[in-house]
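User: My advisor, Dr. K., asked me to get a structural model of this assembly before our group meeting. I'm new to this, so sorry if the format is off. These are the inputs:
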Amino acid sequence: MKKLTIIFIIIAFFRQALIAQDDVYPTPDNNGQLFIKNAVIHVGNGQVIEGGSIEINQGKIVKVGAGVPVPANARVIDAAGKHVYPGLILSNSNLGLVEINSVRATQDANEIGDINTSIRSIVAYNSDSKVINTLKSNGILLANIVPGGGSISGSSSIVQLDAWNWEDAAYAMDNAIHMEMPRLIYIPGARSFFQGNQPQGDPVKRNLEKIDELKSFFREAKSYGLQPQSKETNLKMEAVQGLFSKKQKLFIHCDIVKEILVAVDFAKEFGFDVVLVGASESYLVADLLKQYNIAVVLNQMHSLPTSNDDDVDQPYKTPAQLQKAGVLFAINDADGQTRGRNLPFNAGTAAAYGLSKEEALAAITLNAAKILGVGDLTGSIEAGKDANIVISEGDILDMRTSIITTALIRGRQVSLDDKHKQLNERYKYKYGLK
Amino acid sequence: MRKLLLVALVLCISLTPFAQPTFPVNGVADPRDPVYAFTHATIQGAAQTQLKDATLLIRNGKIIAVGNNVAIPKEALIIDCSGKYIYPSFIDLYSDYGIPVPQRTGGGVGFFGRAQLTSDRKGAYGWNQAIRSDVQGSSIFSIDNNKAKQLRDQGFGTVLTHQKDGIARGTGVLVTLNETNEHEAILKEKASSHYSFSKGTSTQSYPSSMMGSIALLRQSFIDAAWYKDNVAKEGINLTLDGWNNNLAYPKIFEANDKWNALRADRVGDEFGVQFIIKGGGNEYQRITEMAGTKASFIVPLNFPQAMDVEDPNDARFVSITDLKHWELAPGNPAAFEKAGINFTLTTADLSDVKTFWTNLRKALEYGLSEEAALAALTKNPATILGINTLVGTIEQGKLANFLITSGPIFNEKTVILQNWVQGKKYAVKEDGWNNFRGRYNLTLKKAGAATNYVLDVKSAQSASVIAKDTVNTKFSFDGKIIKLSFGPDKKAKSSFFLSGVNNGDAWNGTGTDTSGSSFTWTATLDKLTRDSADSIKKKPLPKTGKLMFPFQAYGWDTAPVQETILIKNATVWTNESAGKLENTDVLVKAGKIVQIGKNLSESGARVIDGTGKHLTAGVIDEHSHIAAASINEGGQSVTSEVRIADNLDPDDIDIYRQLSGGVTSSHILHGSANTIGGQTQLIKLRWGANDDQLKFQGAPGFIKFALGENVKRSSATQGNPRFPDTRMGVEEVLTDAFTRAKDYQAALQRESSALKAKKGATDDAYKTVRRDLELEALVEILNKKRFITCHSYVQSEITAALRVADKLGFTFNTFTHILEGYKVADKMKAQGSNASTFSDWWAYKMEVQDAIPYNATIMQRVGLNVAINSDDAEMARRLNQEAAKSVKYGGMSEDEALKMVTLNPAKMLHVDDKVGSIKVGKDADLVLWTAHPLSIYAMSDKTIVDGIVYFDRTKDLELRKQVSEERNRLIQKMIGEKKGGGATVPARPSFVIKNACSEHDHNHGLLAIDQVEGE
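Assistant: The format is fine. Below is the predicted structure of the whole assembly, which you can bring to the meeting.
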């Protein structure tokens, strides 16, 4: 009889799981009060509060500390023995723009054309992508959705990962314009390389000319913004006016030193807030970046060193080198095979190679928020900020212990279910596993 | 007595058959047969000795006598060679002189284009377009006057020339650089046969890889031998005919690289052939191995040019490998000499033949002796090719192929004056024949009046006329004609113009003066300018850095050795029933684990403190693509004949990088371009070893199979003509291949019984079943001598594969990737299959849309032996952490998780008796971790293979310093070269080729060129 009951329960559970497979429901707004207690709070700014509490009201963090009293009407989450973190932020991603990398019909990340300043990633963000929930269940609550293609790819927007549609998902729209720095090193394609083909002309010289064209564009765009009202509308130039008023940042995707130097030049000439994305060689010019206050988004910790002669742990220790120089940086996870879900472990690797754990955490929370221009809204567990919070059974940076039990987005406790968990349950059921 | 000899000699010559022309003559026949006597010369004798004041007699294109006391026949035309030297002219065994350079036709190229499955060649040829053994150099040879002159000017008289196209290239033709006609120039119609790994202009898809080329060579040897005594179903096969005929000649293999040299030699060894190996210039990096081939080598002088590395941002991307090769490459010929390898030098691979001497002198400067250099250009090539009765030395009866030089041949100022080919004189720098430099009395005569000047001739282009003082003078002398002009005095606006001819010491001619009226002139020698002493300057050997093994950053100059090691007080993860042991010691001796326990001691052992550290068995990666020259033979759907083992690459930096991540063994798999891929190779990461030493001894053979998107060529951009195009077809490819294999096996068995029935007739000669390398590998699978690891994703294809195996009597040992394994774990278990998967990859292509990170845990709980693999050079460095993800996803125990990258892969590879756990008697393949081995914070402190510490985090810091210092030294040296006026080329980044499955989406860094799969 007991056995039967268990089987019945299991079947009941799976029926529900099967129904839920196509939809993990977004959680409605929470206007009430929440209280997290007995937590080890990793604030995101380097601070750790043992035995701390967090008071949340109307989706905002109201109080944080060791001796905060429990409000009368608050729902209480006991985090005893657990670790509480700010929601993790993926700073550079094609999430929701690409479903299956190799299937063209599912690719909405790269537009054709060269100067696509007016392209907006947010309008193509598919909030029903099956990939999204696999990130959320690992504690990633916000992501910067970045368009690609051309020299200037358009604007990115930040989304929260629990939404019915893109308008719902939008957390901060058009925060940055993305520029792909023309390569200042010639890298042949595999075909040219193996067939020994030589490039036509000097590709690096051509790209330097291209950089001049891009500068001309920004100069003209600036002049366009200063023109009196009666003029022919130029959507491409309209789209970048936020850069001049510093409402937007210019994210420049580049890698090698020469490209970084050109990016610095953009910052100097136009006074833009420049952020480098990728910047795998940024450790070579860390002091310069500090001098010009240029922030960096490191795309992928889990990469091979660039040159055979490099230190074997080079990409792993790049964050520590930037930290030492005082450069503001975020760690990202751009891996195409795991689709961003290993963000905390990329930060964990950086912690193994020279960052402190809290510094590594900041690189995927507060620093990321600052770089994306939403540092006043999120990125740390501090009063006044949105209650974007995750609770983990243990150290979130270490896969051994990084098991997320609770996640809040603006105080809403969101579902941590995903396609993978559901398939797991489905086949545990098939084999009679518990 | 000597006279008698001469008479006999003359008689001998006149007794040679009268050569009758078959060609008609237009006009009056003009046969000539003079005797030339070169007298008072220093002649390079047949031995290493020089004959001083000797005579060389030639007639009819041949040497009839040479020596100090040669009687000169009265009819001889005498050429006084006082002060001159005579050497045998050079021989180049690796030329395509006079042979048309084939052009690739058709658009479809193997690498990226639409597959071309059959040969484009019309005619009764073999199936593969790259096997061109029917080509005969002699039938496509025609004299190329320009190229002949270029080569003669460098001192060459004889070349072996062939068409450099294809894997088998047919025969080479031995020709002289005589320009008379092809009939006379050809010395041997078939002097050699030629082979390479490059398919050249062939547009056929197969082979598309190094190992495919090797397999094709092996199968061709087999097919041709079989074809001799058996009838091919297709009928006449001119290619195999050619192949068999060509075996009679010296066989030259274009390897062009040190590892390729070993690969070629192994193919030769298998078929009883000793190839002569054409090198590429980097052989010095593994000269011991080169000597081990026992081959003779043809060595090019294509030394790399210095790069412009003044810009540190450019220098940054040039690797130490390239920098060091630039420094050491000129020592390559010297390395051959020092190693006692028989070698010859070639002009092949030089960007310009004219740089031959510059590079040759560089080789001398870097330690090649003059004796060896001369032998390498004359005697050695003649011996290597077996043409030493014709050329190579100056001896009676040989061809009159020799050089007349102005001095000892390697002296700095020596020039080649004449290059005689088959008794015909070709001028090289004749103006140097006579020393005409000196003071002459110049007399201008006009209407009986004479004006005298002094003419000071400094060189063939420079002289000055001295009247009252030195006046502006223009002068040229080509050995015959003199041209001279000068102003009568320093301020003169117009000049005298003179021209004349040389009559020995006196020059005569006519001229016009400033007023335009003419005069005659003579110049007689007053005093010759004597040459200053000339010799090759004995400079000390250039200072160079040390060799590294491998020739790569972090290579050793002193290889690490096997030690007795006692690791004290570590947390030991045994992977055995003892589980995890705290505060435990492990003793390693002679490469094995000999003791595990507390408070162990061993005198003389290197003690490593393991306090606070964790010791585990070395990580084993079931699915890797590092350390190989090629990974994918995608030319056909069934390529079980290809073998990764044939093309291991011990220089791959990823070996070292993965050691730093605790990996000790990697299973190097063929790619997934086809249903039945190639044979795999398990290696141990013995950084610094050669290709053979990398192999994991005693491991059974495996083979890679693949299913799904890649094998049906889903990403083909130009359509797919290669069967299969669907998963239905994939199943059929498997069924068909194994059906053929069973028929083949049955045929072999029938033959074997038939042979046994005949008494003693087990000899190979009686065998009529053609050995088929492709089917042979499949028969091994049927006989459980070889095991399958099968790239697979979705449940339908996995089930279909299992059923084919059931039906045809084999099993799938391992399913690799197996991302939907969780859906069919029970079926896999029923066949006894193992599973090797990724921890959390998904959604990068259609067939992985249902991949889940709980896969490993579910399969393990159903009872499968499960491993986590990398398939990726970067991720392989973190396999311990990839395994740890199963603790997170599915709650696997930590012990079991660790086994997924140690003991479990060892089991599925059938080497768990040797590796995979910490057990007395097993190989000492160990990792000492800085933290809990499944933690993100764990780093390998020491990685030990066979009791040798191959990675040591402290030592690594030293190596970094060495790399950086050595880079700096080399960059400075290169900059010095530029500053010293040396030619440089723009800095070229050292790109790195990464082998991986293209389906993945993993960035390997800026300089990586991903060798893509599916081609």
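One thing worth pointing out at the meeting: The radius of gyration of chain B is 36 Å.

User: Perfect, thanks a lot.
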